[in-house]
Amino acid sequence: MIKSVLQAIPTYVMSIYLLPDSLINDIERMINTFWWGGGNNNKGIRWLAWDKMACPKEDGGLGFRDFQMFNMAMVAKQGWNLINKPNSLVARIFKARWCIGDGSNIKVMGEPWLREEDGRWVTSPQIQEKEANMILAVPLLHMVEEDKLIWSEESNGIYSVRSGYRKLMEEKRLMNRPRERDGWGSLWKIQAPPKVKHLYWRICKECLPTRTRLRNRHVHCPIECPLCQADPEE
């Protein structure tokens, strides 16, 4: 329900506006509370922060959407002009390339438009012998067309929200924390009902409401195991 309904509700607005961080935090907080069963008073315990749940299952999350990154990916679909602002976060992620037409729109010394033999892009080419030979090797078109931007993350060169979101999440992961791929992918491939997989995930993430953890969350309850009545329920 979260992925098919709750995450889809703000999609239209996110495709037009960059939402304030406070609003995005409120949306994520409400969905997080709903997931952990907060009830009508929203006073349930959120056992795990949203940013740890809004990452791929292979990285230890639940594959929920990071609304801030998704918002940026949606706006970028109609905001290719942001690529012309190289100091913005979106510009650093969306590394658009030029497809040569008549050459009138390209800043040849500052924008990537030339490829090496192995397909890599040459950044800010300096006119030396190597670059000069590469320029001479660029095939001429039968018809002169205008230069156009292409999106290097898609084979057809057209930007998509999916590839933009994937690129943003990859950049965020590299900046914030190391990849956490210690068998999480195998967890979701086991032959078991979804409820069992989620239970196993909660156990691995230490998100089960045991009495010891409830005490740590300032919930007044007996700490002894209800079965043996001797040791604490960890």
From TrEMBL:
Any coiled-coil regions, as ranges: none
InterPro entries: RVT-Znf (IPR026960)
Span of domain Reverse transcriptase zinc-binding: 159-233
Source organism superkingdom: Eukaryota
Pfam family name, one: zf-RVT
UniProt KW keywords: Nucleotidyltransferase, RNA-directed DNA polymerase, Transferase
GO MF term (any one): RNA-directed DNA polymerase activity
Name of protein: RNA-directed DNA polymerase (Reverse transcriptase)
Organism, as annotated: Trifolium medium
